[in-house]
Amino acid sequence: MISPTDTLLIERLSPENLADLAALHQAVYQRSPAPDYFPKKYDTAYTGAKYMGYLAYNEALQPVAFYGVIPTLLWHEGKSLLAAQSADTMTHPGYRGLGLFVRLANHTYTLCKLEGVRLVFGFPNQNSLPGFLNKLNWHCTEIMEHFEVPVKPMFSLEKIAGKFPSLQPAYRHYQQRVLKPYLRAVPGIANSVVAEGFNGVFRDDQYLKYKAYSDTQVIQVDRSLFWIKLKNGLHIGDISNVETDFDTTLKKLQRLAGKLGVSVIRFQTSPGTNLHRLFAARFEPLPTYHIIFKPIDDGIATDRIKFTFADIDVF
After folding, report:
1. What distance in Å separates the CA atoms of residue 236 and residue 76, rounded to the nearest whole number?
2. Mean pLDDT along residues 246-257
3. What's the CA gap between 194 and 207, in Å, rounded?
4. What are the tens digits of pLDDT across the range 28-67?
5. What is the mean pLDDT of residues 104-121?
6. What confidence tens digit (pLDDT) does each residue in 154-175 have?
7. Which residue in 64, 70, 195, 198 has the most C-beta neighbors within 10 A?
8. How far apart are CA 171 and CA 56, in angstroms?
9. E strands within 152-307?
10. What is the rounded CA–CA span in Å between residue 86 and residue 68?
11. 278-292: buried (b, 16+ CB within 10 Å) or exposed (e) per residue?
12. pLDDT of residue 154
């Protein structure tokens, strides 16, 4: 164990130490990410900045803490600017309560300024939120809201496959067979909040190509495109070409989800968006992620920046 006065080795994230990040993830969460997950996630070269974060090591050169952000382009008042999303925060169980989160975060924000990042945004969980607000001077603009659309599958195949890991490959194959008529050969969709005139993540072709580190797909139901992820239900990241008869399209999506063997469709977005209004008219909104910001450049207004679930790094 160390004390807060002990000196740790602090090292910027790089291709050479990505394996240490994966090892720390295993120690903290007791599960290993896919081998290419972190290398793809933190290689944001398309923005002009990459590997934005810091690892802390103990005296035995074992990784004990990490804080990182993901550079991304933000469409803001009619032009793009370099921003970053606060992403992975992890501290080894034996090194918690020693201020490593704040220490590494401040290193990262200094790096952001040097790399030209003008604003950092994030969606922390309830455990991390007080640290961001009280120790790192972030501010909250609003809370995203979550909607659950019930599905009545004939068989709860997702739950069955979850109990028996040996069935997972066959279940994934079945899902793709069911989805095949609906799949569209595109990596993602344009940002619905930007199309409405709000500020938001700039999903150009380079962004969508980068986002391929996450296992998502685009399906078409009627004329609407749904950017989805199948994990603990069917998650909608965003929707484009929303039909006038939204109820009919949604019912078709529910039937498709039932064939896939999932019991719920999930979606979340910022209040005030068109998609929020459509879902809130039909389902109870539940508060989920706090939307928080840390300006690196004080001239960036945050009141009109909106998000959907597709903008969060876990999608």
Report:
1. 24
2. 97
3. 15
4. 999 988 999 999 999 999 999 999 999 999 999 999 999 9
5. 97
6. 899 999 999 999 999 999 999 9
7. 64
8. 40
9. 200-201, 217-221, 224-230, 234-240, 264-269, 286-295
10. 6
11. bbeeebebeebbbbb
12. 85
* pLDDT reading at 3 higher than 80: no
Q: What is the C-alpha to C-alpha distance for residues 148 and 235, in angstroms, rounded to an integer?
A: 9
Domains, the chain: 9-117 (3.40.630.30), 145-289 (3.40.630)
The closest of 68, 188, 195 to 120, measured between CA atoms, is 68
Show the tokens assigned to 50: 């990459």
Residues 68 and 84: their CA atoms lie apart, in Å, by 10
3 state DSSP class of 199: strand
DSSP code of 309? G
Inter-residue contact 240 to 225 (CB < 8 Å): yes
Cα 202–Cα 205–Cα 207 angle in degrees, nearest 5 = 50
Query: CB within 8 A of 208, min separation 6: which ones?
Result: 186, 187, 188
Q: What is the mean pLDDT of residues 18-30?
A: 96
**Two tokens at 138?**
């972030």
Q: Which residue, among 37, 305, 292, has the nearest Cα to 191 in the 3D structure?
A: 305
